């Protein structure tokens, strides 16, 4: 994925989606650690609905809670939470944060060892940790056909998880993330260790939060972690035999508080964008209640659906001229704007494509007039007048009678295309249809401020003839001025003609 530079897929992971995903995944991590806090021995659940299944197992076996583990967990919470808050509150004054996790681990290990908590109270401890390394060997290539399909899913989920975490911390600490570089990193972190019996590698939410909350900022922290792990694997591992598992569970849960604090941002998010808040909730709930992998997929799909929904029913507004300027703004948003009689200026704020073409037509006709209904009404009136004329003249045979329609007050409709980023074929056909309907009742349709992409689409779609290219105006002010002169009957087509290049 890194070689083919497909890091652009990360743009589909919005801030609301990433925040909801991390929060939902935090509930999954918290649930996986809850049994250790109570000292319960439960089977580990996987797949869809694992969070609900785990809590069902916990409540069914809650009467088996180990009081020693529960008391230890509460004591660890009482020590860790205040100290972490002090670290956060005085981080500008402290040269280095208090290593409270290390202190708690050492103290708890010593208390468990000398207090013989496992022997006396059957407390759950880390137990024997094997030391040393297995000899390296080449992967078994015969397994490739079996794991190939799963490898694709694992790579995509691993990349999405890594990028979501990195984007979250990049936003918090003010730096940027290059998605393609992350792909190379994940790839090499899986290719090289595959010769050393390592499992699939990706970013880990709980461990990343632990590192971030303890003040780690550079790769030096990773080097130190690797050295400590090396010492553990070779020498120190037996010393952690008596460490209670509930202590590690408490450390993990305490460091999830940053992700869980995102609930406090929901009121402000709701005030800014209800759609983003909905994306946050859908992603969070699906990631927590279904699974992190499916939850992320649901979040991406729902986020893209919301984008389509926003463009399906976009905002359409009538414009007026700002006094003593050449600017046009929305009549509903600003006061004291000037309008020209017989001219309606409409701004459509969305791409014009197959999904919203009907919305575009209905909104345009609603804010101006419906030429189809006007034409039908004119035909009805003409038939009635023709019938009255025949009766008055006593004409029995078909005759050609010229009847003039009453002139409409509206003579020009100007569409401000500055907020239309692109057109598709359906959008071009819609503009042609709208123009034809307006011209049928004597109203001209002018387009203004079309960007180069829209102009190219109109040219390729043959929206207008070569001699009519000057009716695509570069500003709304020019289009309005042309319409005023055109109504007076003194106008010469003088719009700016686009260069042939």
Provide a short characterization of the protein structure.
The protein has 501 residues and is mainly alpha-helical. Helices cover 55% and strands 5% of the residues.
What is the CA-CA span between the terminal residues? 38 Å
Rg, Å, rounded:
35 Å
Order of helices and strands: HHHHHHHHHHHHHHEEEHHEHEHEH
Biggest sheet statistics: 6 strands, mixed
Count of separate DSSP helical elements: 19
Catalytic activity: iodide(in) + chloride(out) = iodide(out) + chloride(in); bromide(in) + chloride(out) = bromide(out) + chloride(in); oxalate(out) + 2 chloride(in) = oxalate(in) + 2 chloride(out); sulfate(out) + 2 chloride(in) = sulfate(in) + 2 chloride(out)
Family: Belongs to the SLC26A/SulP transporter (TC 2.A.53) family.
Organism: Chinchilla lanigera
Protein name: Sulfate transporter
Set down the secondary structure blueprint:
Layout: H1 15-38, H2 50-60, H3 67-89, H4 100-115, H5 117-121, H6 144-173, H7 179-191, H8 205-213, H9 220-236, H10 245-254, H11 257-260, H12 266-272, H13 274-289, H14 292-312, E1 316-321, E2 328-330, E3 343-348, H15 357-367, H16 371-393, E4 412-416, H17 425-440, E5 444-448, H18 452-460, E6 472-473, H19 476-488
Parallel strand pairs: 3-4, 4-5, 5-6
Antiparallel strand pairs: 1-2, 1-3
């Amino acid at each position: 994925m890194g070689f083919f530079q497909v890091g652009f897929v990360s743009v589909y992971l919005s801030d609301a989606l990433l925040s909801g995903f991390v929060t939902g995944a935090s509930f999954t991590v918290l649930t996986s650690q809850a049994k250790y806090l109570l000292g319960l021995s439960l089977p580990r659940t996987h797949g869809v609905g694992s969070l609900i299944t785990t809590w069902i197992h916990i409540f069914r076996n809650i009467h088996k809670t180990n009081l020693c583990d529960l008391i230890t967990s509460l004591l660890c919470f009482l020590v860790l939470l205040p100290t972490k808050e002090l670290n956060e509150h005085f981080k500008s004054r402290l040269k280095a944060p208090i290593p409270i996790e290390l202190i708690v681990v050492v103290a708890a290990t010593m208390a468990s060892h000398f207090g013989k908590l496992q022997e006396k109270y059957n407390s759950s401890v880390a137990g024997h940790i094997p030391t040393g390394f297995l000899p390296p060997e080449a992967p078994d290539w015969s397994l490739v056909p079996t794991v190939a399909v799963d490898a694709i899913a694992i790579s995509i989920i691993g990349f999405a998880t890594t990028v979501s975490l990195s984007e979250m911390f990049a936003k918090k600490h003010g730096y940027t993330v290059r998605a393609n570089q992350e792909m190379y990193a994940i790839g090499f972190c899986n290719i090289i260790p595959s010769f050393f019996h390592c499992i699939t590698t990706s970013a880990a939410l709980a461990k990343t939060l632990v590192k971030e909350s303890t003040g780690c900022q550079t790769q030096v922290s990773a080097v130190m972690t690797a050295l400590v792990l090396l010492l553990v694997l070779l020498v120190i591992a037996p010393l952690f035999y008596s460490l209670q598992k509930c202590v590690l569970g408490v450390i993990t849960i305490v460091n999830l508080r940053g992700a869980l604090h995102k609930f406090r941002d929901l009121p402000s998010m709701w005030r800014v964008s209800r759609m983003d808040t909905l994306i946050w909730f859908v992603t969070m709930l699906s990631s927590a209640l279904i699974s992190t992998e499916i939850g992320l997929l649901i979040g991406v799909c729902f986020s893209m659906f919301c984008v389509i929904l926003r463009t399906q029913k976009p905002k359409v507004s009538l414009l007026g001229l700002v006094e003593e300027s050449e600017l046009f703004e929305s009549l509903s948003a600003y006061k004291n704007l000037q309008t020209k009689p017989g001219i309606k200026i409409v701004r459509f704020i969305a791409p014009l494509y197959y999904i919203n073409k009907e919305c575009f037509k209905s909104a345009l006709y609603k804010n101006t007039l419906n030429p189809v209904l006007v034409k039908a009404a004119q035909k009805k009136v003409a038939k009635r007048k023709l019938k009255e004329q025949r009766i008055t003249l006593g004409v029995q045979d078909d005759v050609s009678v010229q009847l003039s329609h009453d002139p409409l007050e509206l003579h020009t409709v100007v569409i401000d295309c500055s907020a239309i980023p692109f057109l598709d074929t359906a959008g071009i056909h819609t503009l042609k249809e709208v123009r034809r309907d307006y011209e049928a009742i004597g109203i001209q349709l002018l387009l203004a401020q079309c960007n180069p992409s829209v102009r190219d689409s109109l040219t390729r779609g043959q929206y207008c003839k070569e001699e009519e290219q000057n009716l695509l105006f570069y500003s709304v002010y020019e289009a309005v001025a042309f319409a005023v002169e055109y109504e007076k009957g003194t106008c010469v087509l003088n719009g700016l003609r686009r260069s042939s290049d």
